[in-house]
Automatic annotation (TrEMBL):
Protein name: Uncharacterized protein
The species this protein was found in: mine drainage metagenome
Length: 85
């Protein structure tokens, strides 16, 4: 099983890969509760800050049905009229 740090690193990379496409988006980060319990507060806050720097709003939602080894990433991207795409 991946460590919490490895799971967060993968989420960091995905946010960076998405870059400008995150501007104005709602990002939901969805770890399994067991994984969330192993995340250091500073690392979690760092991921949130990265998303904010890229222009996204962030929400953390623990999901018991999520994989235990990954931080899920769900996006609601707004179109130019402000509607969800």
């Amino acid at each position: 099983m991946a460590s919490p740090e490895t799971a967060l690193l993968k989420a960091y990379r995905e946010l960076v890969r998405l870059g400008e496409r995150l501007r104005g988006a709602q990002v939901r980060l969805t770890p399994h509760p067991d994984l969330a319990a192993g995340l250091h507060t500073e690392a979690r806050e760092g991921l949130t800050q990265l998303a904010h720097l890229l222009g996204a709003r962030v929400e953390w939602i623990e999901r018991p049905d999520a994989p235990r080894q990954a931080v899920g990433l769900e996006l609601d991207v707004l179109d130019q009229d402000g509607a969800s795409a």
